[in-house]
Amino acid sequence: MIRLITRWCVLGLVASAAASPAFAQLPSRARLQAVPNVSSVPRGEIRGIVEDDKGQPLAGVVVSAVGATALFATTDAQGKFAFRNLALGPYLIRAHLQGYVPAKAQVVQVGAGQAAVHTLSLTPTATPIEPPKVLTAGVGGSVPAGEPVEHDHDERAWRLRHAKRSVLKDSGQTVAVTARDDDSLFEDSLQRLGRAVGSPARLATSLFADLSVNGQINLLTTSAFDRPQDLFALDATVPQAVAYMALVVPGRGGDWLMRGTLTQGDLSSWIVSGSYRRKPDAAHAYEAGVSHSAQRYLGGNTEALQAMSDAGRNVGVMYAYDNWSLLPRLRVGYGAQYARYDYLEDPTLLSPRASVTVQPLARDPLKVRAVVSHREMAPGAGEFTPSTMGLWLPPERTFSQISRAAFQPERVDHVEVSAERQWAGMLVIGVRAFRQNVEDQTVTMFGLALPDSVRGVGHYHVGSAGDFSAQGWGVSVSHAVTKGSRASVDYTQSTTQWSGNSRDAQTLAALAPATLRDNERVHDMTATFDSVVAPSATRVFVVYKVNNTFARGHDTVSSALRNARFNVQVNQSLPFLSFANASWEMLAAVSNLFGDDAFDGSVYDESLVMHPPKRILGGVTVRF
User: Fold this and answer.
1) pLDDT digits (tens, 9 = 90+) for 161-212
2) Do 155-623 and 43-124 have the same topology in CATH?
3) How many helices (H) and strands (E) does the chain have?
4) Higher-scoring residue by pLDDT: 597, 317
5) What is the mean pLDDT of residues 431-450?
6) To 5 degrees, how large is the angle CA 241–CA 246–CA 251?
């Protein structure tokens, strides 16, 4: 038994020794180990707070972070903001709030796991943001609630507050933007950010960084339509591109202003002007200027080609006005405008005027004003005459005389006495009484299909409705409804007596009898609303005008629309395109108001525009 056991043990040892090399040749099983996820990328975040110059948090501030991507945030009630899940790298941080000077741009380096808190400070602007100054209803722009308002009472300002204004003529003033000391830092940041801000916008605005002048450039598109479906018709009016530029050179005693605008196509036109205006507080606050306009038509409208000698028209205007402060509470205004229209038989027209403004009591803001003026205006002059301020458009449309008679200029003799008082900076009330004598009242007619002519919205006819006299009165009320919003209402009533017919009476009676009038009472109501939405820096300007004497072009139109005119304008600030010392703004407007007369016009100037088309305008404004 012992031998048997010994043999089996020996055999087991031999077998184990023989099998060991074979097992040693087998590879060992690899142990599973944790491998890091190569797809995860470190992210970072930016936090901050926006304060005013007194260290108080500001809510509703729009903050931008431009780097590998562009992000936007709005501060909460505590003035805090945050950008999370950001790719690593440099970011340019800026803040914007209506009524405050933009904060200095900061370059923030975002690293992995970093969440540093950055503080941005905004300073209130030295002067409130200037709203549109020209309101059809008549007494100024919007002002913050509770703040006193000092209205200018010189010749120009008074007239602008009583303007019959089309919104398509921009009512904004040229904005002076002060260069900031962070421009060099900002430009360096743009170079480092490369693809984020290396855009044509930066190239365009950098051209103005070193200029000492102020101004604006507008790239606009304008068109017109009768009905909305006309925009999609095959024969729809081709939109026109308009370029406008204004430069202001401030001086010690006054400002130089140079403006120019042009458009090209079948109808090519341009206007250039230059003027000088002394400071309003000067003893002699005079203003003088000159402008020249040209229009050339190369389209297919035979009537327009025949009406324009040598396929073009030229208009030149010179003017000079002085507002002289004789005493602290007595100002005298006087001046004249000289114009030359090459399509008139007698091309020269002279329009003088004079005014006296008195403040009866030293401690009372009541102002009383008397005006005497004589105005001569050629038919179609609105196409060539620059707007009284801000943006204006070059001659966009052609026109011709409705009959074989020559063009007759409209002549208006106007006498007016008015009073205006400001109440606690919130409410302004004005009353006025006037009398007019008008010769050759101009009639403007759209949509007439004469024999051998093309009907459309780009060409219109003019004529003379005859002579009349009018006397009437008006009242205007303007009130700051809320902070940044102002509403105005203007009502005018006048009685007219027609005394004679013109050489166009027979033609008008056959083609447009609604333009021939008899003695009647004219009621005109104009409502204006102007509002600035601070968080989004959006300005909305609306005018709605109702008049019982509007010429009716089509009987199928409802009475409410026949007796009403409107214009709507929306300006949207683009603060994050405000590179260097330039600010960007978008503009969109639609209007069927024809006139843009800030001076003493006839009570029928807008009423006797028959069936005006709707005009649309949009584009971009760069102020520098």
Assistant:
1) 444 444 344 333 333 333 333 333 333 443 443 433 334 444 444 444 444 6
2) no
3) 7, 30
4) 317
5) 88
6) 180
Question: Distance between CA 382 and CA 426 in Å, rounded?
Answer: 34
Q: DSSP letter string over 457-479?
A: SSEEEEEE--EEEEEEEEEEEEE
3-state secondary structure labels for all residues of 495-528: EEEEEECCCCHHHHHHHCHHHCCCCEEEEEEEEE
Residue in this structure with the two tokens 């009570």, named with its chain if needed: 603
| The two structure tokens encoding residue 428 | 């302004």
Residues near 581 by beta carbon (within 8 Å), at least 6 away in sequence: 177, 178, 179, 180, 183, 208, 209, 624
Q: How many CB atoms lie within 10 A of CB 237?
A: 19
So what's the pLDDT on residue 194? 40
20: part of which helix (H) or strand (E)? helix 2-24
Q: Which of 185-199, 309-323, 390-404, 519-533 has the lowest mean pLDDT?
A: 185-199
Q: Tell me the Cα Rg of the chain.
A: 35
Report residue 357 as tokens: 């403004």
Residues found in the chain = 624
DSSP 134: -
| Identity of the residue numbered 124 | P
- If we measure between CA atoms, which residue out of 577, 583, 573, 538 comes closest to residue 175? 583
Percent of the chain having pLDDT more than 90?
25
Q: How far apart are CA 532 and CA 143, in angstroms?
A: 10
Q: Where are the domains of the chain?
A: 43-124, 155-623
Q: What is the full DSSP assignment across 373-400?
A: EEEEE-TTGGGTSPPSSS-------EEE
User: What's the rounded Cα separation, in Å, for the pair 481 and 493?
Assistant: 26
Residue with the bigger pLDDT between 53 and 200: it is: 53
Residue 103 has pLDDT above 80, yes or no: no
Average pLDDT over residues 318-336: 93
What are the structure tokens assigned to 570, written together?
């929306």
Q: Model confidence over 560-614: pLDDT tens digits?
A: 445 688 889 998 888 777 655 678 889 899 888 887 655 568 999 988 998 888 8
Residue 207: its pLDDT value, please? 45
Q: What is the mean pLDDT of residues 218-234?
A: 74
CATH of domain 155-623: 2.40.160
- Burial state string for 57-82 with b = 16 or more CB within 10 A and e = fewer than 16: ebeebbbbbbbbeebebebeeebebe
DSSP code at position 594: -
Rounded Cα distance between 175 and 216, Å, is 8
- Cα dist. 127→131, 147, 530 in Å? 12, 12, 19
Domain range 43-124, CATH architecture = Sandwich (2.60)
Residue type, 214: N
Closest CA to 341 of 329, 353, 349: 349
Decide: 605 and 442 in contact? Cβ < 8 Å.
Answer: yes
